[in-house]
């Protein structure tokens, strides 16, 4: 599994355990209707802070950066050697050294 995904999942699990513990504590100390409101409020607050924390950790180089990089690679023009057909993007063919090449899309 991707280490980032694994980290994200264990983080998520940790927050679920923490919020469960908090809701148990709240329902222990407060009477029913008040405890329900307090639990929902706590869940929303935890979600809000968790999202902010993860967004800050990802930053601009997270999903956006890798998406732009992937799109750039897929739209790149590929060249193939005219004499031997080897696909390459270098000045001369790495297999036969010919500088003649054609673009392949
Ligand atoms: Zn070649």
Mean pLDDT: 78
In the predicted model, the low-confidence regions spanning at least 5 consecutive residues are 60-74
Main sheet summary:
3 strands, antiparallel
Distance between the termini: 33 Å
Beta-strand proportion: 5-15%
What is the tally of beta strands?
Answer: 3
Helix content: 55-70%
Number of domains: 2
Backbone structural class:
mainly alpha
Number of helices: 3
Strand order of the largest sheet: 2-1-3
Order of helices and strands: HHHEEE
Coarse morphology:
rod-shaped
Which molecules are bound in this entry?
Answer: zinc ion
Query: What is the radius of gyration?
Result: 27 Å
Explain what you see.
The radius of gyration is 27 Å and the shape is rod-shaped. It folds into two domains: 55 residues, no CATH class; 29 residues, no CATH class. A hairpin with a 5-residue loop joins β1 and β2. A three-stranded antiparallel β-sheet has the order 2-1-3, with no helix packed on it. The chain has three helices and three strands, in the order αααβββ. The two termini are 33 Å apart. 63% of the residues lie in helices and 10% in strands. The chain is mainly α and 105 residues long. Bound molecules: zinc ion (ZN). Zinc ion binds next to loops.
């Amino acid at each position: 599994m991707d280490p980032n995904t694994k980290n994200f999942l264990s983080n998520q699990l940790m927050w679920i355990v923490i919020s469960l513990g908090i809701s148990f504590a709240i329902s222990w100390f407060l009477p029913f209707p008040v405890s329900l409101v307090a639990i929902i409020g706590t869940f929303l607050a935890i979600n809000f802070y968790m999202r902010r924390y993860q967004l800050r950790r990802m930053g601009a180089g997270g999903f956006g950066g890798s998406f732009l990089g992937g799109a750039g690679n897929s739209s790149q023009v590929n060249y193939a050697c005219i004499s031997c057909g080897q696909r390459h993007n270098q000045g001369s063919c790495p297999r036969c050294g010919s500088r003649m090449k054609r673009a392949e899309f």
